[in-house]
Design goal:
Chain lengths: 266, 358, 299
């Protein structure tokens, strides 16, 4: 499948990350990298540590060992103790398995919160509604409307998010993540709980986001069809360890991967 | 028929973002303001101005303050009256010791003092939530009242802790009649309500609501937890502080610390719940409701006792008032958690369709 | 420093703390079984005491009055469960909390509407005089009444602890407190359980009301005791019966000691806020209290 963006050099590097919760080892010395503009999938059986991996990348969990390196402005920065706010300011955005939207706000407001790091006006300027505050609000509204158009959710922009069906909520969460104009987008099971049509739409949006905005995407997904279709490279985790890393075809043929999914004892 | 949006297109985002995007709303609000500023002072009698309208405005402002903190930012506070007390007593001190400042700047400074206290007692919100936070605000409520009564210079060493608010003089013009006090209060409240509305529609308001709805997610998308929560406490306390200053200067006149008890804090919380959590309009509706209900009840029971020549004591009425307030709180929480503001919205929706059923 | 005096203050504080615990117990019961923080507990204490005293004044025998009042509390409990709690079953805890604030106002108004608002005295037959042998031997004055109250509270705590731990209903209550859905799934009748819990809380409120009423007189100020119970619960943990006692002891003692020893330096009256500030500090260091369960938040 030909795509608009050329995959570039490595922009994220996970090196020897180990994460444990008390006695439970969620991740054990996992290393892989992610190239710019690519779509990287993380797959594996349940409990393999995929969500934990994502949480480490964006600073929600701190690994006991290993580091995350991010290439920002040409230079590599290394973290182990980055918090999630710092991650956001470095251009990492994500969606969650259990939808972390603000249920009391409308779709438009939710997506606008994604722009919060770009808003500079102080609260006094906002209260008086002059100059910078006013301009910013309109400017960001314009940017957000583009994303709303892009994800085809114009018709529900003033609806409180709590009232939307599950599939649309997931789309709104994606919109909020994209609103931040992230360099790296982490998607935690974006297709979970969707029917065939919704999945196709979501796939289209993910690919379009990658094409149109050039966003590097790391996604966790269970649907193999989706993974094979849209990802450039795949990392396979099992019991917290990496057991395969390569293109979808390579990974599909890998015996260790097949064993893991079939539940062969090892 | 009257209330239709047909033909009113918004061609720019700026138009869509107005406070009153619908023309009929703008006209209605304009009429309301005209009535409030011009008609009321001309026709209202002294009792209505000084005993009903002015306190209603002041309590609306305090409700607005609490709504910002509890309704928009989700931080439950039972210390509203304490912040009002800080505003009242500090305004007194500024006017007393620095008369060259002027009344309005004194009010603003008093509000800032209240904001500072708010930030200090808001610090626990960084670690605790929900009704645990409510307990922390109780500490504020009791401590502040105690401090005002014990720290001599706050009350200018008055033996009983009672102070008398000075006369309000702005640029040589005296605000000493009920009408003038009402107009001054109205002006201040209107301006502050506008500022609050602007603020809640912007990024600050969104940040507050994000923290209320899911603070972990808010943090992940980049919203600063500490700054946002403390800002909510600061702004809310500022509003309550100014309300307190107004309470002292344009309503009570003679102020004792006992005017700012926990009971008042609860009253204002009720105004927030009944009026509508997270709504500027709701703050006014809730305050109106709770200010007017006792009057309605005493008129009602006055009528009943007149008609049946039965003596209905004051105590009975005031107990009934308690029961009705409490029952209404429970009622609104069950039936319409977004209070009168939502009911108003629903009424407007119906009005759009009128005279058609759907 | 006068040691005897110190002990007098300390013991007085501990015993006052026991009185707080009596009220806190009611909170813990309801919280344990339904996750609701019942702000109206203080109003329930007031209502119970006022009802009892008024029935007594009508000339009815002490024990019969007790039974009648208990009946009233049970009916009240069932009513509250049906009208207030059931419609709010799935709402956020804060909504339920605010509903109980509304309930407080209703109960306060109702109590005074039905029984009037004059204060009443309450005689339980135990005089509020110092225990003779303590005051004569060691010059320490400790009220007989407060020791009696401590005994009552101790008995209640022991009884409740056994109830929760070893009876079938007690287990069911603990299950319900843990997870409503799961409890329903194993067939525990939620509505009955809640009615039972509130009835027991009503009984606890009655006992607390009798103790406090005998000590301070039955008057409206009784409702403010509920507020003092909050710091007790924070220290002890909202869902711990032994915690309510320990928390009460600590709060009672430190409050009295602070008032006596620190109070004079700052003009007195510290008792109005000291307990809350302690609770506040505790919240910052150990939010779940000494015995409560740690609350973990997951994304």
């Amino acid at each position: 499948m030909s795509r608009a963006q050329q995959v570039g050099a490595a922009v994220l590097s996970v090196e020897g990350v180990s994460l444990a919760f008390g006695g439970v080892k969620a991740l054990q010395e996992v290393s892989f990298d992610v190239h710019e503009h690519e779509i990287r999938a993380i797959i594996g059986p349940n409990g393999a540590g995929k969500s934990s991996m994502l949480n480490v990348i964006n600073g929600v969990y701190h690994p006991q060992q290993g580091a995350i390196r991010l290439r920002a402005n040409g230079a590599w920065r290394e973290f182990r103790d980055m918090d999630s706010r710092e991650a956001a300011s470095l251009g990492i955005a994500r969606t969650f398995q259990n939808i972390a939207l603000f249920k009391g706000m409308t779709v438009l407001d939710n997506v606008l919160t994604g722009r919060n790091l770009k808003m500079r006006a102080s609260f006094l300027e906002q209260a008086i509604w002059i100059g910078r505050a006013r301009r910013e609000e309109l400017q960001h509204r314009r940017a957000v409307e583009e994303i709303i158009d892009f994800l085809e959710i114009q018709h529900i922009r003033k609806t409180p998010v709590g009232k939307l069906p599950y599939g649309l909520q997931k789309r709104v969460e994606l919109a909020r993540a994209l609103a931040a104009e992230p360099r790296l987008l982490l998607l935690d099971e974006p297709m979970a709980g969707m029917n065939l049509e919704e999945k196709r739409d979501m796939c289209r949006f993910v690919i379009d986001a990658n094409d149109h905005y050039g966003t590097t995407i790391v996604l966790i997904e269970h649907d193999m069809g989706v993974v094979m279709d849209i990802s450039d490279r795949v990392v396979v985790l099992d019991y917290g360890r990496k057991i395969a890393d390569g293109t979808p075809d390579e990974v599909r043929a890998n015996q260790a991967v097949i064993d893991a999914y079939l539940g062969v004892a090892h | 028929m009257l209330y239709r949006e047909a033909g009113q297109f918004k061609a720019t985002y700026a138009q869509d973002q107005q406070i009153f995007p619908i023309r009929q709303d703008r006209i209605a609000f304009g009429l309301l303001l005209a009535a409030a500023f011009v008609v009321v002072p001309l026709i209202a009698n002294q009792y209505w101005l000084s005993a009903i309208l002015t306190p209603f405005l002041i309590l609306s402002l305090a409700t607005l303050g609490l709504n910002i903190l509890t309704g928009y930012a989700g931080q439950l506070s039972l210390g509203t009256a304490a912040f009002m007390a800080v505003g009242a007593f500090m305004a007194y001190n500024f006017v007393l010791r620095m008369p060259w400042l002027g009344v309005i700047p004194s009010f603003v400074l008093a509000g800032l003092c209240a904001a500072a206290v708010g930030i200090v007692f808001g610090l626990p919100s960084l670690r605790i939530k929900g009704f645990y936070l409510a307990v922390a605000t109780l500490a504020c409520q009791f401590f502040v009242l105690w401090a005002i009564q014990r720290i001599g210079w706050i009350t200018n060493y008055s033996a009983s802790g009672v102070i008398t608010a000075q006369k309000i003089e702005i640029l040589g013009y005296m605000f000493d009649t009920p009408v003038r006090k009402y107009v001054l209060t109205l002006a201040i409240v209107a301006v502050m309500a506008l500022l609050a509305k602007n603020l809640m529609r912007s990024e600050t308001g969104r940040a507050f609501m994000a923290v209320r709805d899911m603070d972990v997610a808010a943090s992940v998308i980049g919203i600063p937890m500490m700054k946002t929560k403390l800002l909510a406490f600061a702004i809310s306390s500022f509003y309550c502080g100014v309300a307190g200053a107004l309470y002292a200067y344009t309503y009570l006149g003679t102020v004792e610390p006992e005017a700012f008890t926990l009971d008042l804090s609860f009253r204002i919380l009720f105004m927030v719940i009944i009026g509508g959590v997270g709504s500027i309009l709701g703050s006014f509706l809730g305050a109106a409701f709770i200010t007017l209900l006792p009057i309605f009840l005493s008129v009602l029971f006055g009528g009943i006792s007149h008609a049946t020549s039965m003596e209905i004591s004051h105590a009975v009425v005031s107990n009934l008032e308690s029961i009705i307030f409490g029952a209404l709180i429970v009622f609104f929480l069950i039936v319409e958690p977004h209070g009168l503001a939502r009911l108003w919205q629903i009424a407007k929706e119906k009005l759009r369709l009128w005279p058609f059923p759907h | 420093m006068n040691l005897a005096f110190f002990f007098e203050v300390l013991i007085g504080g501990l015993l006052a703390g026991v009185m707080y615990s009596l009220v806190a117990l009611g909170f813990v019961l309801i919280y344990k079984a339904s996750g609701v923080f019942n702000f109206a507990q203080g109003a329930m204490v007031f209502l119970a005491a006022l009802t009892f005293v008024s029935i007594l004044k009508m000339g009815i025998n002490f024990w019969l009055a007790l039974v009648i009042t208990l009946g009233v509390m049970v009916v009240l409990a069932i009513g509250i469960e049906k009208i207030v709690l059931r419609p709010l079953v799935n709402q956020a805890p804060i909504t339920l909390f605010m509903a109980t604030i509304g309930l407080t106002f209703v109960l306060e108004g109702l109590s005074q509407l039905v029984w009037g608002s004059q204060p009443h005295g309450l005689e339980l037959g135990i005089p509020d005089v110092p225990m003779k042998w303590l005051s004569q031997k060691w010059n320490i004055n400790v009220s007989q009444f407060e020791v009696f109250a401590a005994g009552v509270a101790g008995a209640m705590v022991a009884g409740l602890a056994l109830f929760f731990q070893y009876t079938r209903i007690g287990r069911a209550l603990r299950a319900v407190a843990d997870d409503h859905q799961a409890a329903l799934a194993v067939g525990i009748p939620l509505k009955h359980i809640w009615a039972i819990v509130w009835a027991v809380a009503g009984f606890v409120a009655l006992v607390a009301g009798l103790m406090w009423g005998a000590r301070n007189g039955v008057q409206f100020a009784l409702t403010f005791i509920a507020l003092k119970a909050l710091p007790v619960l924070i220290l002890g943990g909202f869902d711990s019966v032994p915690g309510a006692i320990v928390g009460g002891l600590i709060i009672g003692a430190s409050e009295k000691l602070a008032e006596v020893y620190i109070g004079p330096m700052v003009g007195g009256g510290i008792e109005s806020w000291f307990a809350y500030v302690i609770a506040l500090l505790f919240l910052l260091v150990r939010p779940q209290g000494l015995f409560g369960e740690k609350i973990i938040e997951r994304v």
